[in-house]
Amino acid sequence: MFKTAIIIGAGPAGLTAAYELVTKTDIKPIIIERTNDIGGISKTIVHNGNRMDIGGHRFFSKSDIVMKLWQEILPIQGSDSKDDILKDIYYQKKRTQVKLSPDGPNPEKTDRVMLIRNRLSRIYFLRKFFEYPITLNGKTISNLGIIRIIKIGWSYVWIQILPIKKINTLEDFFISRFGKELYKTFFKDYTEKVWGVPCTEIDADWGAQRIKELSVSRALLHAIKSIFKKEKSIEQKNTDTSLIEQFMYPKLGPGQMWETVACFVEEKGGIIIKNSEVVELNIVDNQVNEVSYINHTTNLKSKVKGDYSFSTMPVKDLITAMGNKVPAIVKRVADGLQYRDFITVGLLLNKLKIKNETSIFTLYGLVPDNWIYIQERDVKVGRLQIFNNWSPYMVADIEKVWIGLEYFCNEGDKLWKMSDNEFVQFAINELHSIDIIDKNEVIDSAIIRMPKTYPAYFGTYSQFNVIRNFTDKFENLFLIGRNGMHKYNNQDHSMLTAMTAVNNIISGEKSKDNIWNINTDEEYYEENAD
Ligand SMILES: Cc1cc2nc3c(=O)[nH]c(=O)nc-3n(C[C@H](O)[C@H](O)[C@H](O)COP(=O)(O)OP(=O)(O)OC[C@H]3O[C@@H](n4cnc5c(N)ncnc54)[C@H](O)[C@@H]3O)c2cc1C
User: Fold this and answer.
1) Which of 60, 105, 141, 148 suits 42 as a labelling partner, its CA being 20 to 30 A distant?
2) Which of 43, 119, 482 gets mutated to test ligand 1 (max ligand atoms within 8 A of its CB)?
3) Residues 465, 451: one domain?
4) CA 37, CA 44: separation in Å to the nearest integer?
5) Residue 93 falls within a domain, yes or no?
């Protein structure tokens, strides 16, 4: 008889675990997925032919293994994509060069292709655009005004002379890195929009993990280096992750990657049970031997036995599902874990009000950004995705503009509970009020609510080791992924945790330390928020 592995969740981590099992072992994976979709947070939603990416997922990693796997599944484009072809035909303007793969597929002829996209993200503040990361150039000075610039410069020098002795909170972290004035201008409001709590209540760990190496000096160094040398290869080994200039992106959005992996897993004998939520893990001694799930259509409860279990479900829910054998202290810490939730509003427009005033040539004068951080204090919207610039195939009619407005909230709060119509109207009014769109240009809209997108580094997070020490004792249970480990893991780290867990099974490694160490030891950091 073959062995089986139960995998909770069909997101990047669960699917990578299944992929590794079917390619490297004879263990049969059975994935149980709560929703009807594949890809978890990294899925693509289709609305009237237009595709939404929840968050804007760059496919980029410092890990060669991950980069290679992505390209094996979706090979890099060998010919121009639709937008570049149009730029050449109608405007006789050459696009910004991307390095095509000599034998790669043609995105005009096949869907199974990975695009290489140029990255641009800017900050919208005081109804003006600022470069990300903030660069000290003539435009920044004129946008901010000389008084603010002097204050920023002075407070940066001040903190270098008198550094903060003990960095406890995220506010301490930001101030010691950037000075008080730069923190107040560009980091405080946005970060508090994302997390819904003051920076003084967030552990400094968040900064250490997410923006480890971003500093004023590194940003300046990068700006100088990029004047002299443009890195053409997609690996961008010498570039910090926050500052990469190109990234890979599946032609049809991030979900395409995971739908392709799911098909492969099924072809190789794996099973995917959708619309079914894991509610109980049966634990005996130091083993998980059975998992129960409820099918949301039939409401029927079923049980499945497994030799191994991989969990990508939120740690809080996992501990609840482990039932009354869980020690009270573990239960208390798990109950106190907090999350931030997410609402994306998709808007289809004839055109935007903001115009392209950069030197980058774009179709129909569209701004060239992939996403824009909305730093304005008078609106709740946090970020704006311009899906046309992620892939021209995300939008059904390339002459229209398809954007995503991102709101950070808490499940059950005022924003979360607004009706769909009310919310969409609220979102349209916000963008209209800050001069990004004219509300009369909106043609279509969609809304997606996504719970638990951000595992929070506050609440009982500082006692997380209590949970880890408990779950690590279960030899055949592997906590992997983002919410699965309550860690700020991106796709690549989520995948690496899955790969390491499978390798541990193969090699007989009992310790889980190497799984927990991913995204801790490595050279990695991210920007503002995902
Ligand atoms: C706004 C935003 C932007 C991001 N941008 C990037 C980026 O640019 N690049 C990048 O690489 N990463 C990015 N990420 C991170 C990326 O989305 C995650 O790292 C990745 O999706 C995590 O994969 P996962 O499988 O661990 O979890 P998830 O994607 O959360 O998948 C978990 C799955 O488990 C299912 N599930 C949950 N509970 C149960 C249950 N009880 N029973 C059964 N199934 C269950 C869920 O429905 C879900 O499908 C971003 C994230 C966000 C929120």
Assistant:
1) 105
2) 482
3) no
4) 9
5) no
Residue 280's identity, in one-letter code, is E
Q: Domain check: are 292 and 360 in the same one?
A: no
Report how far residue 171's alpha carbon sits from residue 204's, in angstroms, rounded to the nearest whole number: 8
Q: Tell me, yes or no, whether 63 lies in a domain.
A: no
Among 57, 193, 383, 496, which is best to mutate for testing ligand 1, by the most ligand atoms less than 8 A from CB? 57
Give the largest Cα separation in the chain, rounded.
Answer: 74
pLDDT in tens, 158-199: 999 999 989 999 999 999 988 999 899 888 888 888 888 899
Instruction: Determine whether the shortest distance from the Cβ of 385 to ligand 1 is under 6 A.
Output: no
Is the CB of residue 261 below 6 angstroms from any atom belonging to ligand 1? no
> Ligand 1: does its nearest atom lie under 6 Å from the Cβ of 84?
no
The answer as to whether 285 is a domain residue is yes
Q: Which of 404, 434, 455 is the last residue of a domain?
A: 455
Task: Specify whether 469 is located in the same domain as 449.
Answer: no
Do 162 and 269 belong to one domain?
A: no
The tokens for 324 are 């009354």
Mean pLDDT highest for which of 144-148, 282-286, 333-337?
333-337
Atom of ligand 1 nearest to the CA of 37: 49
163 Cα: distance to centroid of ligand 1 (angstroms): 37
Write down the pLDDT at residue 133.
Answer: 74
Query: Any idea what DSSP says for residue 34?
Result: S
* One domain for residues 448 and 469: no
361 and 305 both lie in a single domain: no
- Distance between Cα 486 and ligand 1 center (Å): 11
Ligand 1, atom 26: closest residue by C-alpha? 481
Buried b (16+ CB within 10 A) or exposed e, 199-236: beebbbebbebbbeebebeebeebeeeeeeeeeeebeb
- Measured by CA distance, the residue closest to atom 1 of ligand 1 is 55
Other CB atoms within a 10 A radius of the CB of residue 165 amount to: 7
Would the CB of 30 count as within 6 Å of ligand 1? Answer: no
Is residue 136 situated within a structural domain? Answer: yes
Instruction: Report how far ligand 1's centroid is from the alpha carbon of 344 (Å).
Output: 15
Q: Which of 41, 374, 391 to mutate to test the pocket of ligand 1 (most atoms within 8 A of CB)?
A: 41
Domain span at residue 389 reads 338-455
**Contact in structure between 517 and 497 (CB atoms under 8 Å):** no
pTM for this one?
0.91
In this structure, the answer to whether residues 427 and 472 fall within a common structural domain is: no
